[in-house]
Amino acid sequence: MDLNLKDKVFLVTGGASGIGAGISRALVAEGALPVIVGRNKAKGDAILEELGTGFQIVKNLGTAESCREVVEEALQLTGRVDGLVNNAGANDGVGLETGSPEAWINSLQKNLHHYYYLAHYLLPELKQRKGSILNISSKTAVTGQGNTSAYAAAKGAQLALTREWAVELLPYHIRVNALVPAEVMTPLYRTWLDTFDDPAAKQRSIESKIPLGQRMTTCEEMADMALFLLSDRASHITGQHFFIDGGYVHLDRAL
User: Fold this and answer.
1) Catalytic residue at 116?
2) Of residues 115, 117, 121, 151, which has the active-site annotation?
3) Which structural domains are found in the chain, ordered by start?
4) CA 11 – CA 25 distance, rounded (Å)
5) Which residues of 116-154 are buried (b: 16+ CB within 10 A; e: fewer)?
6) What is the pLDDT along the chain (255 residues), one digit of tens a residue?
């Protein structure tokens, strides 16, 4: 199936590792050009060397000004942007009891605010291109996890913004959707697993609760859905939340 993504340009935050890297790889495989945004230049250099194409913008996305600069630089580098993949963020464990007001605000700045800032500053270009926005959220937005109030709040807000933007941007034919991953083996997830005394046992315990195949979702599976939603093949899909999780959230885990 031709997704008609050849020569199109997509801004991918956190595009050098995990789910973001999977999306960057898939974009290149379809002939599209990723502009990878992140703080770690070495990771960005490594994936661009692997891909053989694409661009990197090394920037901390914590402020509105830095996000405006990202959009300006992306347009200077490529001359166009056809879509935005809001992906960057991390589960930083800011809970209600264990957190603080200062940590709460800092977490929202890292996990939520740049989703709005980038979409805001990129909007004129997306209107011209009739582009699309894809927000990467998390199951924590709907299931809860414990000891991660700020991250869960940010991810819930991303789902709300997906529907809000889908409504607001209807006149411009800009589609907005969200992916909701659950258990995906990313470098960050691996780091979390390694905090346990027996990481392998913890992983087996988690996988046993995933109904379809008792295994984790891969970054490639996340990327496949991401590219479909970014493409013209999804031309009548907007305002939707897609759970790519082997049935983890909605099916009985006793299965």
Assistant:
1) no
2) 151
3) 9-182+218-244 (3.40.50.720), 185-216 (no CATH)
4) 13
5) bbbbebbbebbeebebbbbbbbbbbbbeebeebbbbbbb
6) 799 999 999 999 999 999 999 999 999 999 999 999 999 999 999 999 999 999 999 999 999 999 999 999 999 999 999 999 999 999 999 999 999 999 999 999 999 999 999 999 999 999 999 999 999 999 999 999 999 999 999 999 999 999 999 999 999 999 999 999 999 999 989 999 999 999 999 999 999 999 999 999 999 999 999 999 999 999 999 999 999 999 999 999 888
